[in-house]
Amino acid sequence: MPRLAKGDKIKKLVLPAIDGSVFDLSAYEGKRYMLSFYRFATCPLCNLRVHELVRRRAELPAEFGLVAVFDASLEELTRHATRHGADFPILADSDNTSYRQFGVERSAWRTAAGFVRRFPQIAYGVLVKGYFPGIPGGNITTMPLDILVNDDGTVHTAYYGRDEGDHLPMKSMFEFALGAQRPDCQV
Predict the structure, then answer these.
(1) pLDDT tens digits for range 17-49
(2) 92: exposed, middle or buried (C-beta count within 10 Å: 0-12, 13-18, 19+)?
(3) What's the mean per-residue pLDDT of the chain?
(4) What residue spans define the domains of the chain?
(5) What is the pTM of this model?
(6) Distance CA 98, CA 109 (A)
(7) Domain 14-178 is of which CATH architecture?
(8) Angle 54-56-57 from CA coordinates, rounded to 5°
(9) Other beta carbons less than 10 A from residue 89's beta carbon
(10) What is each CA distance from 159 to 82, 168, 183, in whole angstroms?
């Protein structure tokens, strides 16, 4: 699947969530949101990002949606992600259907380079936050993908990570989320 581009229409997505429900992306129809694809459930860098999103959620407009998709079984994801206490859907896609559908990339080289470049973050995630990587249930070469979606269901930004810890800068997400309310937003 080629990379998503600005203006592409977002495809259907229905996946199981850690709260026991089945999440349908059509629930966000007419809203702005960020759809993020992560690696396996115990990835320290992924869990640090989700932790940051949970911590900063109150700074975002209530109507702005967040959706996190993990390359993991529902059982494994539930065991590791419920500790975040997220008020947004965290979804499991163990067979990678949506990963293929949205063009999520994999790269052994970028994973290795990211491990070296992001070792301090990984160490912080493991030693301070307790996000122990364990045996990954998903593919360790999965690269992150963050998609900002307009209220008309089209892609505003598709940010393909350069390595396993590279996500859309928080500033970009906040500017997009707050932009409709405050065009002069300076986050």
Answers:
(1) 999 999 999 999 999 999 999 999 999 999 999
(2) buried
(3) 90
(4) 14-178
(5) 0.90
(6) 23
(7) 3-Layer(aba) Sandwich (3.40)
(8) 65
(9) 22
(10) 26, 6, 22
